[in-house]
Fold Glutamine synthetase.
Amino acid sequence: MVDFRIVDPAGRQHHVTIPAVEVTDELLEVGAPFDGSSIQGFKGIEESDMVMRPVLDTAYVDPFFNVPTLALQCQVYDPSGVRYDRDPRYIAEKAEQYLIDSGIANTAFFGPELEFFLFDDVRFHSSPESSFYALDSEEAVWNTGSAQNGPNLAYKVKTKGGYFPVPPTDALHDIRTDIVKELMNAGIRVERHHHEVASAGQSEINFRFDTLTKTADNTMLYKYIVRQVARRNGKVATFMPKPLFGDNGSGMHVHQSLFQDGQPLFYDEAGYGKMSDIARHYIAGILYHAPSLLAFSNPSTNSYKRLVPGFEAPVNLVFSKGNRSAAIRVPVAAISPKAARVEFRTPDATANPYLAFAAMLMAGLDGIRRKLDPTELGFGPYDKNIYDLPAEEKEKIQAVPSSLESVLAALEEDHEYLLEGGVFSKDFIRSWIHLKKTTEIEPMSQRPHPYEFHLYLDL
């Protein structure tokens, strides 16, 4: 079989499967038709015919089907043969072309670090008269006294105590290794894997950086493989930023750098953190546009339950060489010219990587084009614990917005930088804001929350 796959604006994958004997040269060139009105964020029912055309260098053999299946990522077209403006992969490709056309650089490298949880049981329900969620994990600290599944073998992960202990405390080593093997078989270079800080199965697997669109492809494949291997092992993987109250959430720290004809542009031996002026301008662009940028890098209501002080959350719009509460960290350990990069720590993996990486690049390039200075704008550097600063100094530090509503409002006011070179369109931005408001913010705001009964039942 041959599997054709596309990604919708929200970041979910969809697929259609075709017997290999029916996959002709003509089909590969013309593409396979599908109903765009059934894809959230695409077309209305009155103009629903669309076409997906495979990108051949994304092919890999999917190991999770009983029948050998070749999977291919696709580009989305109108029936007339014109690339579809709301196809997230097209937006990523346009961002890379805009970089080349700008003359600033011809290559942007992105390297995301995705964190996730592996749970043993996930239950949730929402109806007019009831609502709940319940999570469980063999590692969870709340199971120290449990005897539901036979003898309790202890070695649970304490709250905020999960940063790479050896087994038996780390009960997920073999599953992560299984994920790594499948990632490598799919052509993704994996650098390391380990348990993360939170209890109840938080994990991280790092893969090697690549160019913008290729890294977005790899990110989608990574999430698919993590979920499938988890399911194969009787577990549930989630990239939700904050599934657990009172413990660390999951982020997607994004390392990024620019090159011109193979030469790194972010390195300067004499600069702060060995960063060049171009890198400083890039940092300033991301921090300056962060309130609107988060509409793509942190696009869920759950994102803002992670972005609160006290959990190593990168809530402060500053840059630093080592402060993990800063939105941008400048890595300084074992840095060579080609390894010089900036790490945007605020994003999470509910982001569509094509849109998020493209938006980050556009914000950074705007900073370079306008020669924005992060220090003059009040963004630091801050190389000390921000939480320990005197109150009057803390007040000078800008923080990220506290809700999805806030970042969407910021996007409505600040999106011109995204329109440069036709990378994003006003139509797409309007559609994105409408999609988020109607499918996430409004449904959430209309439902009672279980904790509200704790707060208000007796008033």
Q: What stands out?
A: Residues 362 and 418 are 6 Å apart (CA to CA). The first strand starts at residue 2 and ends at 7. The chain has a mean pLDDT of 94. The chain has two domains: 2-84, 107-456.
